[in-house]
Write a structure and sequence with these properties.
Keywords: Membrane, Transferase, Transmembrane, Transmembrane helix. This is Glycosyltransferase involved in cell wall bisynthesis. The structure is a single chain. By secondary structure, the chain is α/β, with parallel strands linked by helices. The chain has two domains: 8-212, Spore Coat Polysaccharide Biosynthesis Protein SpsA, Chain A (Alpha-Beta Complex), CATH 3.90.550; 219-298, no CATH class. The protein has eight helices and nine strands. A hairpin with a 4-residue loop joins β6 and β7. α6 packs antiparallel against α7, α6 runs parallel beside α8 and α7 packs antiparallel against α8 (276-298). The longest helix is centred in the last third of the chain and has 29 residues, at 243-271.
Length: 315
């Protein structure tokens, strides 16, 4: 923290070619309640040099409870953008750094709830509980309603971290540029945080909503995203844990997940003539389980990272 400054929290949002989603995100962020005893700022990192993004930020700033800054990171990739956000947050002397995605929205008390969770648990990382809704409001997946302590990892879509993890006089962690377009950069970052002793806690009192467009909700997109995510996870575990522990983890997880997926698929076929809505849910569950199990196995032998995020999904 800078000498003579109140402690501060920076909310970081990285964006790329999703102006409508960013506008909705910033509208909700602009309504956040400001903590009384802390400085606060919103930092938007645009992963292209876009006048449209700057205009969206200017419009949001006019009605925001918290000042919003806009910065450009021209090097394409998730890690470049997230690391640029960390640099800006540290330059602003933030003690707590929050990440959320540009396809997410939050209620007014969300930031206060995240900070409260950090205060009462003392954890260096607080994960928000996430609910998933289709654009338009249809609920896809409910948020976690129970506290989870000492999680093995966290993700960047609604997370608070202590600046000690990234400061030069702390642990100097950064997002690994190897995962720029593959995804999994946030998982790897928080695995590193866990390795240096960070405690990770999920709070059900701070719920963030992720908005899923129809294209992202397609079974083909769902299969590829889950397959790639678990492939990358296996590759990361091989490096972090070594072959033996990784093989054991995959052996414990993948066959059971595959079996559950096939069972859900069979059940969906039986249910379909009688309850199409429930059958569709079972098909989604089957798709996720099968793709995750196959992806986890594929990561044990392949070494090439996927390019899951070379194409932007959203608007």
């Amino acid at each position: 923290m800078g000498e003579g400054l109140l402690s501060g929290v920076a909310v970081c949002i990285c964006t790329y070619k999703r102006p409508e989603m960013l506008a909705a995100c910033l509208k909700s962020v602009g309504r956040l309640q400001r903590p009384d005893d802390m400085r606060s700022v919103v930092i938007v990192i645009d992963n292209e040099d876009s006048e449209q993004t700057r205009e969206i930020v200017r419009a949001a700033n006019a009605n925001s409870n918290i000042p919003i800054e806009c910065h450009t990171e021209k090097q394409r990739g998730l890690c470049f953008a997230r690391n640029a956000a960390l640099s800006q947050a540290l330059e602003w002397h933030a003690d707590q750094i929050v990440f959320m995605d540009d396809d997410q929205t939050v209620p007014p008390d969300w930031l206060i709830a995240m900070l409260h969770a950090q205060k009462v648990t003392g954890a260096m990382v607080i994960q928000s509980s996430i609910e998933f809704r289709k654009v338009g409001g249809t609920l896809i997946k409910v948020a976690q309603r129970q506290w989870q302590h000492d999680l093995p990892q966290a993700y960047s879509g609604g997370v608070l971290l202590a600046s000690e993890l990234v400061r030069p006089d702390g642990y100097s962690l950064r997002f690994d540029e190897r995962f720029n377009l593959s995804g999994g950069e946030d998982r790897w970052f928080f695995l590193q945080a866990k390795a240096v002793g960070a405690k990770i806690v999920l709070t059900p009192e701070a719920i963030i909503t992720e908005h899923v467009i129809d294209q992202k909700d397609k079974l083909s997109v769902l299969f590829k995203r889950r397959f790639d995510a678990y492939r990358v996870a296996s590759l990361q575990d091989l490096e972090m844990l070594g072959p033996r522990e990784t093989y054991l983890r995959v052996a414990r997880f993948a066959p059971l997940a595959f079996y559950k997926g096939i069972s859900s698929l069979i059940l969906s076929g039986i249910i379909l003539p009688f309850n199409r809505r429930y059958a569709r849910k079972k098909i989604r569950k089957a798709t996720s389980a099968i793709s995750e199990s196959v992806g986890a196995f594929s990561g044990l032998w392949g070494r090439r990272l996927p390019n899951s995020y070379s194409t932007t999904i959203g608007r």
